[in-house]
Amino acid sequence: MQKLQYLFMSLAALLLATPAFAQATAVAHPENQWIPLAAGLGMALAAGLCGLGQGKATASATEALARNPGARPGIFIFLILGLAFIESLALFTFVIIFLKAKPI
How far is it, in rounded angstroms, from Cα 76 to Cα 60? Predict the structure, then answer.
């Protein structure tokens, strides 16, 4: 456990110290080359995690309906509301990426 803590602390120190050694270059904005990759990875991560959340919500609602079929209207309303909130997270990510990731 102690070795793992030292490993993470040293990695954090290395990653935080990197900008201190950066030099200015003649290129206008070389960091812009990573924006499309970061946007794609961000959207993939958001979509994947929203998919996992929706799967878990649907599984829980199905289990609740199997245990108590009489509670279907209440469960259905909250299931649809929860799925809409989960999906809105992916849509917010998409909008933020669309606003920030402009073509090079």
Answer: 11
